[in-house]
Amino acid sequence: MNYQTESSWSSYNMPTRSNTASGGDPLQRIERLASENAVVIFSISTCCMCHAIKRLFCGMGVNPTVHELDQDPRTGKDMEAALTRLLGSSSAVPVVFIGGKLVGSMDRVMASHINGTLVPLLKEAGALWL
Amino acid sequence: MASHRVGETGLSDSGPSNHHVPHGVFHGFNAPSTSFINQEGSAFDFGELEEAIVLQGVKIRNDEAKAPLFTGRPAATLEMFPSWPMRFQTTPGGSSKSGGESTDSGSAVNTLSSKAEAQFEPESPISRKASNSSDQQAFDQKHLQLQQQQQQQLHQEMSNDISRTGPSQNQSAAKASQEKRNGAGSTSEKQLDAKTLRRLAQNREAARKSRLRKKAYVQQLESSRIKLTQIEQDLQRARAQGLFLAGCGNLSSGAAIFDMEYARWIEEDHRLMAELRTGLHAHLPDGDLRIIVDGYVCHYDEIFELKGVAAKSDVFHLITGQWMSPAERCFLWIGGFRPSELITMLIGQLDPLTDQQLMGISRLQHSTQQTEEALSQGQEQLQQSLIDTIAAGPVIDGMQQMAVALDKLGNLEGFIRQADNLRRQTLHQLRHILTVRQAARCFLVIAEYYGRLRALSSLWASRPRESLMSEDISCQTTTDLQIVHQPSQNHFANF
């Protein structure tokens, strides 16, 4: 698992400081972050379901990139709000992006794993080699 | 006691054997002072009295034709010493009777009998009344026996004074005892009579006591039965309202509602199972069978939905498996069955499968195992986090701590939802991999499997356990309620 540290957060914030207040910005950041790696998980460090989803990917042999929103002092809250709006559910996390595309929360990930679509997706994104 | 002795000895012989009622009646009358000395060592032998009553009653009947008097008050015949001085306490009833009738033999008997009755009152009124009713039969029997044999003799004695009827009464008594003895030989007539009478009296006493015990027991049974029906009615009313009264552990309304819905779901499950079975045996065309199979999948979707609603109101009820049968609860995993276990159970029973299908099933088993592992680890982290919150050392703000703990507990609902989601996905995927007929067989196997687990729970609960018998009797209320509760639990399937 790759955890993005705070320094990398700040480095990303620099060029777009003027747009921090706008609603679309967090979403753009999310998209940008999501496309950087094959498997990207937005999480909160204390969330148990996030822990479960992390364990699920690790158990499959995948190395996901995890962004802990509670450890981002400046934009974490905004991104959390944006994710909530994106998913349309009460909880923002965990959210999984594979190959830059939104997969969804735990139930969607689980459903795709059970019906056998998750592994091909992971392979396509280059997260799994078999 | 003196009065008792009086009544007793009044009937007894002045000689060593004191069971000659007729003797006592008349000998004692002749020599009242000596007869008083003679008494039994043991408790009052009512049997003697009975004999006297019988014989005197026979006499009275023939004498005065006072049958109603006799039947109404058998003890009335106890009055055998009309002219005896009143050495024992007299009751108002007794004295009034004696006053009413004077020298008439019947009335004389009445007087003493009523007095004697009054004397016996404090001893055991219940036994007296019982004995009176039971003695009535004895009297009647003896009466019939004696009457047939001694009719003429008694008629002769009718005109005699009581004292002079002694010998004839002796003869009748002797004949009565002879009848009862069944012709057994003995040394002297008098001794035989005494032994026989004593034995008879003791038998009567024992019979009376056992009748009393039986009566008391029956009354106890009746009251228990009434109480039981009342409790059952209460239970039915409470169940109709969807609540369980105290004594069974209080279920929240959400839990009770879910339990009721689950019970209905079980019944529906039985019905659908029967449909699947008949559909398979009837070799229905795939189109028709598909409808049944899809109906069964919807049936499962229904219970997962119900569980989702119930998890919002009472998560502990679901996650602890209280709604399941005990045998199913053994295999509890986050509020239901473990999907990988279900697949393992099914693999051997789904043959024949194509290679593709086998691979699909194997992949399904693998992915369910991985997901189960992930969810279990997530739940473990939740538990650890909860422990850390509650067990935190010096508590600065108790309410804050509790608020945080409550917040974390709220995540349980999420885990149940995800676990049920996994179960639903597994069943849907099974349906997807298998053909219609295979799926029908598969779901039939699943239904039967959980049905057997439920049946196992029922059998286990009702197996004979001697060590617990006393508990069952003493804790009737709770046991009853548990028994009522268990049948609904035993029909629960594991999801």
Automatic annotation (TrEMBL), chain A:
<keyword id="KW-0676">Redox-active center</keyword>
<comment type="similarity">
    <text>Belongs to the glutaredoxin family. CC-type subfamily.</text>
</comment>
<feature type="region of interest" description="Disordered">
    <location>
        <begin position="1"/>
        <end position="24"/>
    </location>
</feature>
<dbReference type="InterPro" id="IPR011905">
    <property type="entry name" value="GlrX-like_pln_2"/>
</dbReference>
<keyword id="KW-0963">Cytoplasm</keyword>
<dbReference type="Pfam" id="PF00462">
    <property type="entry name" value="Glutaredoxin"/>
</dbReference>
<feature type="compositionally biased region" description="Polar residues">
    <location>
        <begin position="1"/>
        <end position="22"/>
    </location>
</feature>
<feature type="domain" description="Glutaredoxin">
    <location>
        <begin position="39"/>
        <end position="103"/>
    </location>
</feature>
<dbReference type="InterPro" id="IPR002109">
    <property type="entry name" value="Glutaredoxin"/>
</dbReference>
<dbReference type="GO" id="GO:0005737">
    <property type="term" value="C:cytoplasm"/>
</dbReference>
<protein>
    <recommendedName>
        <fullName>Glutaredoxin domain-containing protein</fullName>
    </recommendedName>
</protein>
Automatic annotation (TrEMBL), chain B:
<dbReference type="GO" id="GO:0006351">
    <property type="term" value="P:DNA-templated transcription"/>
</dbReference>
<keyword id="KW-0238">DNA-binding</keyword>
<dbReference type="GO" id="GO:0003700">
    <property type="term" value="F:DNA-binding transcription factor activity"/>
</dbReference>
<keyword id="KW-0539">Nucleus</keyword>
<feature type="compositionally biased region" description="Low complexity">
    <location>
        <begin position="136"/>
        <end position="156"/>
    </location>
</feature>
<dbReference type="Pfam" id="PF14144">
    <property type="entry name" value="DOG1"/>
</dbReference>
<protein>
    <recommendedName>
        <fullName>Transcription factor TGA9-like</fullName>
    </recommendedName>
</protein>
<keyword id="KW-0804">Transcription</keyword>
<keyword id="KW-0805">Transcription regulation</keyword>
<dbReference type="InterPro" id="IPR025422">
    <property type="entry name" value="TGA_domain"/>
</dbReference>
<feature type="compositionally biased region" description="Polar residues">
    <location>
        <begin position="157"/>
        <end position="175"/>
    </location>
</feature>
<feature type="compositionally biased region" description="Polar residues">
    <location>
        <begin position="88"/>
        <end position="116"/>
    </location>
</feature>
<feature type="domain" description="DOG1">
    <location>
        <begin position="255"/>
        <end position="463"/>
    </location>
</feature>
<dbReference type="GO" id="GO:0000976">
    <property type="term" value="F:transcription cis-regulatory region binding"/>
</dbReference>
<comment type="similarity">
    <text>Belongs to the bZIP family.</text>
</comment>
<dbReference type="InterPro" id="IPR004827">
    <property type="entry name" value="bZIP"/>
</dbReference>
<dbReference type="GO" id="GO:0005634">
    <property type="term" value="C:nucleus"/>
</dbReference>
<keyword id="KW-0010">Activator</keyword>
<feature type="region of interest" description="Disordered">
    <location>
        <begin position="82"/>
        <end position="196"/>
    </location>
</feature>
<dbReference type="Pfam" id="PF00170">
    <property type="entry name" value="bZIP_1"/>
</dbReference>
<feature type="domain" description="BZIP">
    <location>
        <begin position="193"/>
        <end position="237"/>
    </location>
</feature>
<feature type="region of interest" description="Disordered">
    <location>
        <begin position="1"/>
        <end position="26"/>
    </location>
</feature>
